[in-house]
Backbone:
């Protein structure tokens, strides 16, 4: 039983309790609801009348319980009737589509064009007040809601393979609907039923209150509230009891519906609303603990040493990136390469403090040299500290430009926002700078593009706009996370060309290019860092690594690239191991054709074939 | 954009036609003679002479297509005929009472949006916390309590016990503005409570969803503070579905203030409808239902158009 299912127990019990009391009314030892006792009208609670007596001296508790019967009967009756009719209409409409869809679902939806209470009133005008007209009115009212829910669920199910298979085997449509489709639409149907019962009670009580629903002397909560209004000054409790009963019952059903929804669709909620964007922290200043004087080496921009990243969840910790080291010098382009799941994107996000909520840096040293020559420990930086260095010092280009640009803001505004965030330009200067940036990233007619919305641009143009946002404040380090992956090959080449020209224009800017595409690496990178299963396996100048890989994984990656020189493509057998099932020893060993026993015991140390190169293979000399 | 407006407007006009026809059919397709049905009370048979007179007045002796055309023409010209009860033109009554109902709805919508959007947003950024739990409970309770219960309890509290507000009634604004507003306060507040609950839930859900979007991460990557991110990127996008729901709810309310007007003795359109239903005054009921439905349809149209303005992507999507 999952947590969501356990949370169902309380509302389900409450609802069952309410229903039980109401259903058992005839068996309970209650006074007659119609026996009047006028001398004792408005009498307070007593041993025989627990909740007192009403304006005719009738027992309030008994009327309360019996009153629930009318409400519940009408609400449940119409909810079920509407469910049956609506389900049939929805199933037929969703399964057969076409004309059937029009006369079932679309026709039912016309009812939704009328305000609900109004429709109920219209039916009552024609048929007169009473229990049955009310049930009819509510059934008409709720049928299209079910029809809609079942219809859309049916649409989803009908295209599934096993339904198509049954159809192909010649099963009768009705059989398919009853045995295959119906069970699949049950969950949303259940949620709807509890929702409709609550809503039907609202309308029933309202109409009864107006004297257009349940006819006296049958007790009903709406009628009781209406009657109590007249004697509000003498006996306010007479108003409160039925009000509480009514609101409480409806609340119980709504509560049940909410929990049912969470139980059936557990994707629901993440705690802390994106952690309220990681808290406020100190106001923008880089904390002293994160500052250090004097750079270690000349020209170094970023030095990551032994950085680990783990996912923390309810006390357990899962390491996703282990002791990664990367160095970026001024003006250098470093490619971070690996298959999906190698941890390369997470590494990039960690450098800008944009890790997903559950992840955090758990170890290592991450030093960045700021524009003023001061060294900042990124691992110790809080959100406010990161805010200050983002965009101006370290900036990021994301993979999916369509999702990473705000759809309801104009391109120009989104670039301008980055400029204003760092208080540089103001007013007209911003507009001029925006156009200049858009021109720099190669958008044609930049004045007009600045006024366009993201959806009005092509995929390649959106990625250019994204890049304009990223370079708006002349970052010292630009991290590009798979910036070409989602694009067509010809557009990919153009975007790569753009990166190259940006590098030419700002020769001091460091670039980390995250990709799984070795062909791209060869085009753009000075150095390459190969990652596998959360670890760096090889690192060195790009041309050297390509010419003589010192790690079997790099060699395998190279062999799998379609290039003129190679005779045939070699796929790497197996997949990247999952973080909770990492092999002991070398993480690549299970997929490695050179693996020996020594590879499977103990993590391999880092070797330096040359001062500029690293490899995490113990047998690099033999396989070279 | 122009094409979108045209398509949506045509759809709205089509819907109005459907509703007009539906109301006509409802009256004429029910088994039995409408005149007899309208005059009979329970199982007591109606007086044949009265039925014949009513048939004549309702034009039931005309061929069905002519009745239908008259019905359509009445809606187009706004002429719903004269009331059975007092012979007064129905359209005139509607014209006096409709603004009073709209006043309650608009006041309620303003109160609900002003109080609901900030609370929903706050609950979202504190999701899972105590404030969030409390707000959720309040909203559920507010949604589960029928308006006439809230109204009655509010009268009990403010008019009967504390005696700080009048229990109900109506004074035109031109006669006594202060008293008018005082009288408006309780009915508008009562309607606002239910609406508030809807808005809180919607805005909480919408903000939570938008906070997860990639472009919010982009905004962080730009170095924006969380205040600007919330204002410019999160709430702005989250408002679109919230305003849609607010607009649709306002439409529902045009027929749904019946109970509130009744409880607070506010002489609006809905109260008029109840009286008409009670008296089975056919021209009145049809006139009011038609008016409300037309407003409902066009309000939905307005919501769609405002949405298209707020979210530039919508006008491109073909429906």
Residues:
């Amino acid at each position: 039983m999952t947590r969501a299912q356990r949370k169902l127990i309380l509302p389900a019990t409450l609802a069952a309790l309410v229903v039980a009391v109401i259903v058992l009314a005839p068996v309970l030892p209650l006074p007659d609801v119609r026996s009047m006792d006028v001398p004792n009208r408005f009498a307070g609670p007593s041993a025989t009348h627990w909740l007192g007596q009403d304006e005719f001296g009738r027992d309030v508790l008994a009327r309360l319980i019996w009153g629930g019967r009318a409400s519940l009967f009408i609400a449940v009756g119409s909810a079920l009737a509407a469910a049956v009719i609506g389900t049939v209409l929805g199933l037929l409409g969703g399964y057969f589509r076409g004309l059937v869809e029009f006369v079932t679902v679309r026709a039912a939806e016309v009812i939704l064009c009328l305000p609900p209470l109004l429709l109920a009133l219209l039916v009552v005008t024609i048929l007169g007040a009473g229990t049955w007209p009310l049930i009819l009115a509510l059934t008409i009212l709720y049928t299209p809601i079910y029809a809609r829910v079942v219809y859309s669920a049916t649409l989803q199910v009908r295209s599934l393979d096993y339904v198509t298979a049954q159809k192909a085997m010649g099963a009768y449509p009705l059989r398919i609907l009853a045995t295959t489709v119906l069970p699949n639409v049950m969950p949303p149907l259940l949620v709807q039923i509890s929702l409709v019962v609550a809503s039907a009670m609202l309308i029933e009580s309202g109409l009864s209150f107006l004297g257009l629903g349940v006819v006296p002397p049958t007790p009903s909560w709406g009628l009781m509230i209406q009657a109590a209004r007249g004697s509000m000054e003498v006996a306010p409790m007479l108003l409160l009891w039925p009000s509480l009963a009514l609101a409480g019952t409806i609340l119980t059903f709504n509560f049940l519906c909410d929990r049912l929804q969470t139980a059936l669709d557990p994707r629901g909620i993440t705690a802390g609303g994106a952690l309220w964007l990681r808290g406020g922290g100190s106001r923008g200043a880089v904390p002293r603990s994160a500052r250090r004087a004097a750079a270690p080496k000349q020209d170094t921009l970023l030095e990551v040493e032994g950085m680990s990243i783990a996912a923390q969840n309810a006390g357990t910790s899962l390491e996703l990136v282990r002791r990664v080291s990367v160095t970026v010098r001024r003006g250098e382009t470093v490619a971070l390469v690996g298959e999906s799941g190698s941890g390369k994107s997470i590494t990039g996000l960690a450098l800008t403090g944009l890790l997903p909520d559950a992840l955090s840096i758990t170890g290592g040293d991450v030093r960045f040299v700021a524009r003023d020559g001061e060294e900042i420990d990124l691992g110790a930086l809080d959100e406010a500290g990161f805010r200050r260095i983002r965009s101006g010092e370290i900036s990021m280009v994301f993979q999916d430009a369509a999702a990473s640009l705000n759809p309801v803001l104009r391109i120009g505004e989104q670039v301008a926002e980055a400029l204003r965030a760092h208080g540089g330009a103001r007013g007209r200067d911003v507009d001029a700078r925006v156009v200049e940036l858009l021109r720099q990233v190669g958008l044609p007619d930049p004045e007009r593009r600045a006024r366009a919305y993201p959806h009005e641009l092509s995929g390649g143009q959106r990625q250019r706009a994204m890049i304009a946002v990223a370079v708006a404040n002349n970052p010292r380090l630009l991290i590009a996370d798979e910036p070409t992956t989602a694009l067509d090959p010809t557009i990919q080449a153009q975007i790569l060309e753009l990166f190259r020209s940006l590098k030419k224009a700002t020769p001091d800017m460091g670039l980390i290019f995250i990709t799984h595409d070795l062909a791209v690496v060869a085009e753009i990178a000075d150095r390459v860092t190969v990652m596998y299963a959360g670890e760096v396996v090889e690192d060195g100048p790009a041309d050297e690594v390509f010419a003589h890989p010192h790690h079997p994984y790099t060699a395998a990656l190279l062999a799998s690239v379609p290039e003129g020189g190679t005779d045939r493509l070699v796929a790497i057998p197996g997949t990247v191991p999952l973080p909770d099932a990492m092999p002991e020893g070398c993480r690549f060993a299970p997929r490695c054709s050179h693996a020996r026993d020594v590879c499977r015991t103990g993590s391999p140390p880092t070797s330096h074939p040359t001062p500029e190169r690293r490899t995490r293979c113990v047998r690099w000399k033999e396989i070279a | 954009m122009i094409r979108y407006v045209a398509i949506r407007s045509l759809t709205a006009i089509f819907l109005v036609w459907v509703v007009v026809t539906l109301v006509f059919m409802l009256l004429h397709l029910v088994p039995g003679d409408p005149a007899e049905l309208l005059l009979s009370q329970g199982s007591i048979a109606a007086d044949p002479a009265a039925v014949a007179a009513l048939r004549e007045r309702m034009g039931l002796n005309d061929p069905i297509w002519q009745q239908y055309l008259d019905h359509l023409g009445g809606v187009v010209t706004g002429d719903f005929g004269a009331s059975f009860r007092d012979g007064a033109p129905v359209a005139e009554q509607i014209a006096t009472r409709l603004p009073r109902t709209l006043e309650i709805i608009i006041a309620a919508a303003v109160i609900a949006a002003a109080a609901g959007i900030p609370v929903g947003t706050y609950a979202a950024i504190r999701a899972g916390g105590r404030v969030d739990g409390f707000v959720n409970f309040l909203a559920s309770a507010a949604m589960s309590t029928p308006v006439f219960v809230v109204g009655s309890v509010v009268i009990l509290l403010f008019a009967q016990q504390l005696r700080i507000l009048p229990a109900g009634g109506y004074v035109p604004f031109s006669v006594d503005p202060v008293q008018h507003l005082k009288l408006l306060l309780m009915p508008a507040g009562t309607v606002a409570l239910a609406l508030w609950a809807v808005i809180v839930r919607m805005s909480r859900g919408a903000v939570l969803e938008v906070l997860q979007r990639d472009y919010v991460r982009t905004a962080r990557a730009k170095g924006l503070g969380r205040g600007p991110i919330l204002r410019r990127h999160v709430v702005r996008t989250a408002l679109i579905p919230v305003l849609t729901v607010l607009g649709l709810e306002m439409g529902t309310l045009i027929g749904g203030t019946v109970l509130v007007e009744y409880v607070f003795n506010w002489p609006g359109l809905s109260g008029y409808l109840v009286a008409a239903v009670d008296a089975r005054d056919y021209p009145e009921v049809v006139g009011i239902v038609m008016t409300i439905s037309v407003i409902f349809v066009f309000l939905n149209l307005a919501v769609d158009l405002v949405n298209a303005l707020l979210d530039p992507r919508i006008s491109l999507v073909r429906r």
